Amino acid sequence: xxxxxxxxxxxxRKGAKxxxxxSLHIPSGVFGLLGPNGAGKSTLMKIAATxxxxxxxxxxxxxxxxxxxQHEVRRILGYLPQEFGLFNNLTAYxxxxxxxIMKGMxxxxxxxxxxxxxxxxxxxxDVHKRRVGSFSGGMxxxxxxxxxxxxxxxxxxxDEPTAGLDPEERMRFRNLLNRISADRVVILSTHIVSDVAxxxxxxxxxxxxxxxxxxxxxxxKRCAEGMVWEAEVPSHTDIEALPxxxxxxxxRDGDRLYLRLLAKQPPxxxxxxxxxxxxxGYMALITGMNGGDAx
Length: 295
Ligand code: ADP
What we know:
The protein is of the alpha/beta class. The protein is built from 9 helices and 14 strands.
């Protein structure tokens, strides 16, 4: 099971070029698609999920060609869209039942067993008779994941699945993700770097419709090699004024400011070099600090 995009572009009717010559191979396992808002992630995911068509290029999902064989792809697909219109007046069980029927699960006994198994899996068995409208953000998100998993999809697309979750819910979600078996393709699209840190074997970074990098987690870190600095300055220091440096993070403690910076040269006299992390590599790529030659 794998997905390939070859020279895929998408121009929306209103003129925005959302994808610009994207070539990307996604093998089985958990794949992180990382990029800032507006990068084109949802557009790419909607194309793979057969909701929209590319303007040009070739797309193959599990051996099926899109858009020609979209019916075959829909049969193996689970999709968690960025905006999930949950059915607030239905109970959790009714909502699962509805989606299962839409997915063609006709056998009543099997459908029921599958719904019960998934509700248990996302820890919602106790509240299966409650209306979805009364759920917390985290509960809704777990239900949304459960519905995407109905009918054992070989391709699971999760578009910004941790948006709106608090840190604890986000952790629970990551644990869930790690338990999804690896013989399928799971695409996790997100703008949150730490979402891909834990569970993704491979990843790609998309920015302004273009693939900036595809590889492993370590490859992303390497984009900031030799450019990461830590420094401590008085808290009134104007960090915007540092020449040719990008601030990855800053933490104020009393009258001191602790900085993590990207720069080709030491950005401050007493800056100490540091090992690059994922966030550093991502910032280096997105800001063009690494020279933009990581393709
Ligand atoms: P992301 O998911 O990474 O935030 P999107 O794929 O949603 O990015 O958007 C990529 C670009 O395409 C943005 O500039 C966005 O404004 C534009 N875009 C998205 N959907 C549409 C649409 N239906 N019509 C016109 N432009 C769109």
